[in-house]
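Dear support,

I submitted the protein below through the web form. The confirmation email said the job was done, but the results page showed an empty box. After a refresh the structure appeared. I'm attaching both so you can tell me whether what I see now is the final result or a partial one.
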Amino acid sequence: MATTKHSACAIAAVVAIPLAFAAPVAAAAPATSAVPASSRSCLTAVAAVGTTYASQVTTRTTQLVVVRGKKKKSSYNKVEFWERTGECWALIKRVNGRNGARGWSKKATDGSLLSPVGVFSLTDAGGRLPNPGTELPYHYGPQAYSKFGYRMNSKAVQVFDYVVAINFNRNIGKPPRDEGRPNPKIRDGGIWFHVSGAGATRGCVSVKEANLAWALRWLNPTEHPMIVMGPKTTLKQ
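What the results page shows now:
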């Protein structure tokens, strides 16, 4: 695993925010908020996602992850999980997340600490821990995914316990650790949806481990899941 690619997501969890301040930030708000089935509204479209991005979601997609960045230069976001049944979109769950330490860009590059804005498919998963129950192809690699863990206040932190590869300039169908970048004109890649560390990432999207394990069990390749990600004001376009 090259340190300039997939591993970069983990390293920022250490360097973006001083460790002394990391724990209070993570504990500032509830990690998850599930929407009871009885309270789910039937919407003809995913709320606050404009036609620019909604039009890129395939008609086959019935599971959608929406990452709404707080601001363009913020590393904080809300991660929403949506399901479509017939013509109805319903919000299933909303959790707190983090992204690149410098926010978002439509032209993110390696080492920029920016997360890419866009709409991407989700097809491949893996991690340091065994498959938690996902039906996505899962690449189990205890040693391969643990080499970039670190320690904080004597506690081991492993942000790659579970990962879902975001199909931004990557070879779809390969394990997340595959480092091929099919479009050499795009100067970035190796973007993952993974477990949160001490703070922001170097470009990936992260949530607490329990939330990512839940997401893996929820994601199903037959639903053609996708992710829409960017600042909330941008996603409204």
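Response: this is the final, complete result; the empty box was a page-load delay. Residues 209-218 form the longest helix (10 residues).
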